[in-house]
């Protein structure tokens, strides 16, 4: 069975060099063009000739398990992760998202500290998420491997990739430094636009 062509690798919305020195060109080249491309290729291979070929990526994530879940979620997670980064980021949340951050965590610095602690503390590979429930209330969700809060009925807003491939070229074994650098390029404008869609779809 030939692989499906349903899903494709979204191009990065910035140049490979644009996030340096926080995230190097070499890291982005491997992370996007090698690791993420491989998840998308495997996803297309696994859905070929199955009912999953007719489903949205989100529905595959909600319904599949095993290798199909892993590759579908990794394809989704990485697109979501890369899309939140910018060489000219809005450094802080504002508006209704800022109100929700303050209600849940006290202030934005405390949110950053708590997500960083969760990222450094997650054993092995995985993702740390900022997510919202249907009422817009925020929480931090740690997931091993390809885990995504969509499977808990939550709305993902922001993802920290703690797989070694996300930071090892630039920061070697020091995950905390990789996370610290990531905060420098997270564009809160994107997180706000995601938050604004809750309740509208
Ligand atoms: Mn990754």
Question: What's this model, at a glance?
Answer:
The protein has 201 residues and is mostly helical. The protein is 47% helix and 10% strand. It is built from 8 helices and 3 strands.
Give structural attributes.
3-stranded antiparallel β-sheet, 3 strands, binds manganese (II) ion, mainly alpha, 201 residues, 8 helices
Write the layout of secondary structure elements.
Layout (H helix, E strand, L loop, with lengths): L24 H23 L9 H7 L2 H18 L11 H11 L2 H14 L4 E7 L5 E7 L10 E7 L6 H4 L3 H9 L4 H9 L5
Antiparallel strand pairs: 1-2, 1-3
The structure holds manganese (II) ion.
Global structural class: mainly alpha
First CA to last CA: what distance?
Answer: 35 Å
- The mean pLDDT is 97
Run of helices and strands: HHHHHEEEHHH
Poorly predicted tracts of residues: none
Strand content: 5-15%
What would you say this structure looks like, in words?
With about 200 residues, the chain is mainly α. The chain has helices at about 25-45, 55-65, 65-85, 95-105, 110-120, 170, 175-185, 190-195; strands spanning about 125-130, 140-145, 155-160. The chain starts with about 25 loop residues before the first helix and ends in a 5-residue tail after the last helix. The chain binds manganese (II) ion. The site of manganese (II) ion has 7 residues, from helix 1.
């Amino acid at each position: 069975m030939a692989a499906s062509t349903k899903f494709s690798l979204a191009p990065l919305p910035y140049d490979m060099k644009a996030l340096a020195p926080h995230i190097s060109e070499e890291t982005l080249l491997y992370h996007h063009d090698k690791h993420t491309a491989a998840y998308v290729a495997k996803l297309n291979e696994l859905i070929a000739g199955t009912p999953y070929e007719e489903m949205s990526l989100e529905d595959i994530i909600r319904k599949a398990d095993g290798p199909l879940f892993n590759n579908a979620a990794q394809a989704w997670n990485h697109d979501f992760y890369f899309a939140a980064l910018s060489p000219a980021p809005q450094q802080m949340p504002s508006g209704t998202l800022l109100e929700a951050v303050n209600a849940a965590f006290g202030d934005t610095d405390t949110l950053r500290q708590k997500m960083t602690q969760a990222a450094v503390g997650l054993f092995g590979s995985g993702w740390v998420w900022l997510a919202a429930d249907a009422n817009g209330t925020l929480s931090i969700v740690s997931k091993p491997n390809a885990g995504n809060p969509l499977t808990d009925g939550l709305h993902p807003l922001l993802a920290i990739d703690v797989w070694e491939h996300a930071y090892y070229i630039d920061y070697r074994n020091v995950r905390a430094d990789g996370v610290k650098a990531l905060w420098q390029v997270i564009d809160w404008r994107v997180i706000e636009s995601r938050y604004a869609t809750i309740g509208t779809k």
